[in-house]
Amino acid sequence: MNHQPRIAFISEHGSPLASLGGADSGGQNVYVGQLAKSLAARGYQIHVFTRWENATLPLVVKWCPGVSVIHVKAGPQMVIPKEELLPCIAEFTQSIFDFICTQKLEYELIHAHYFMSAMAAVQLKNLLNIPFIVVTFHSLGHVKRLHHGTDIRFLEERLQIEKDVVKQADYIVAECPQEREDLMNYYNAPSSKIVIIPGGFNPDEIYPIEKAVARKMLNINTNRHILLLLGRMVPQKGIDNVIHALSRLKIKDSQSVYLIVVGGESDNGNPTVCAETRRLQQLARENGLETSISFVGRKNREQLKFYYSAADIFITTPWYEQFGITVLEAMACRTAVIGANVGGIKYTIVDGETGALVAPKDPNALASKITELIDNTQLREYMGNNGLKRVNGYFTWNHIAEQVSNVYMKMMTYT
User: Glycosyltransferase subfamily 4-like N-terminal domain location, by residue (predicted)?
Assistant: First the structure.
C-alpha cells in the first residue's frame, strides 16, 4: 500500500494499554490493540482514541509502529466503570474533536468500538466531515437485557443510541453469526450493512508450550489435572457455575483436579480489592474446594501462553459472550476447551471436534463433560490438535485484519 490511510479507532473504555482481567478490561482491549497492530502492519496509520483515566500516562503514546494511543479527557482522571461512563461521552467527543482540530488531522474513516464510542463517532463524522463509520459493538443492549434483566444502567438510553448508530453506520462488523441475527432481529439492521468478521489471536504471542515446561515455569504440580479459567472477574462470566461443577465431579480422585482462575483487579488474586474474587472464594469454601482452586490474579500477556499450555482443559461458561477471544487463545496452545453454547463461543468451537459445548448455568452438564475429558486423554489431545489447526487456519489477527481492510478499501474506493 503506497498511500498510508489514517484511521481513527474510538474505544472509550477499551484501551490497548490497560492491564487485563479487571471488571472492564478484557477481550475488547485485546481486540482493539491487536487489530490496530495488524492493520498498521498492512500500511495503515491507526490512532486509538480512549479515555484518559490514568494521570501518569502521556497524552499520546506511540505504542508500536503505525499505532498511537491518544488519551482524551472525559470526566475525572480515574477508573470509572463503563456502565457509568455515558454522562462523560459528550466531553469525550469534544476532547477528540479539539485534538483533531488542533493537530489538523484528517481521517479516511472512523472505526468505533462499543455503543458509546459509536455515538461519539456519529457526531464526529458530521462535525469533521469524515466520510465513513465502521462499528464493532462488542455487546448489544437488547442481548444484555435478555441475560441480565432490566437492572442495567442507562439501558433505555443505550437501546436508543444503538438504534441510531445502526442507521448511521456504513458498515457493522458482527463478530459471529448470532450477532448478525441479533442486529437484524432487534435493531432492523439491513443485512447489506453487516459483515461477519470474528476476533483473532496473535500466533507470535500465543502458541503451544510443552506442558511440563509450562507447569515448571508456573510452579504447578505436574501430577494433577489442571483446569483453567481466564477472563474478567464479573458474575456474568459464570465462574460460580464452574465451582458448582467441580463439587459434582464423579471421578475416582477428585483431589487430582485443580482449578486455576486468572483475572481480577490485582496481580496476585487479592480478594480485598475485588468483590467478585471474595464472592467466589467464599463459594469455594462453602463447597469444600478451597484447596482445589487458586485465584492467581491478572497476568500480563507474555505469561498467558504458559497458563493456557499448562492446562489440561480450558473452561469458559459465561451467560452470554459476543465472541470470546480466550477460547481462541486456549485452542492456539493446543488445549482442549469446554465452552458455553452461546454467542460467539458456539461459532468458535466445533462441538466434539475442537472442543465441547455445554449449556450455560448447568453445572451438572459441565461436570459430566469435565469428567469425560479428564478420563479420556486421547480425546483431549484430539480436540487440542484440531483446535490448533482451526485457529491457525481462520483466526489469526493477520487474517482478521485482511478482512477488515477489505471492508475499509470497499468504502475508500468510493471517495
Answer: 26-204
- Are the beta carbons of 227 and 243 closer than 8 angstroms? no
Range of the domain at 267: 211-394
Q: What is the pLDDT of residues 45-64, one digit of tens each?
A: 999 999 998 888 899 999 99
DSSP 223-272: TSEEEEEES--SGGG-HHHHHHHHTT---S-GGGEEEEEE-SSSSS--GG
Do 261 and 408 sit in the same domain of this protein? no
Q: What DSSP string runs through 180-223? A: HHHHHHHH---GGGEEE----B-TTTS----HHHHHHHHT--TT
Tens digit of each residue's pLDDT (9 = 90 or more) over 330-364: 999 999 999 999 989 999 999 999 999 999 999 99
Which residue(s) pair with 60 in the sheet?
70
Do residues 68 and 46 touch, judged by C-beta distance below 8 A? yes
Query: Largest Cα–Cα distance of the chain, in whole Å?
Result: 68
Q: Is residue 191 part of a domain?
A: yes
SS3 state at 132: strand
**Domain membership flag for residue 73:** yes
Among residues 283, 321, 276, which one has the least CA distance to residue 298?
A: 276
Per-residue cell: 151 = 437492572
Task: In whole angstroms, give the CA distance from residue 64 to residue 33.
Answer: 10
C-alpha dist (Å) from residue 310 to 238, 306, 323: 22, 6, 23
Query: What's residue 16's pLDDT?
Result: 87
How many domains, in total, are found in the chain? 2
Residue 1 lies inside a defined structural domain of this protein: no
Strand partners, 174: 196
Give the distance, in angstroms, between the CA of residue 122 and the centroid of all CA atoms in the same chain: 24
pTM for the predicted model, two decimal places: 0.89
How far is it, in rounded angstroms, from Cα 407 to Cα 110?
12
Cβ-contact 232, 26 below 8 angstroms: yes
Given a cut of 80, is residue 152 above it in pLDDT?
A: no
What are the helix (H) ranges across 42-132?
89-103, 115-128
Residue with cell 484518559: 52
Tell me if 206 is assigned to some domain.
Answer: no
> Do 120 and 195 reside in the same domain of the chain?
yes
**Averaged pLDDT of the chain:** 92
Average pLDDT over residues 147-167: 86
Closest CA to 383 of 315, 298, 300: 315
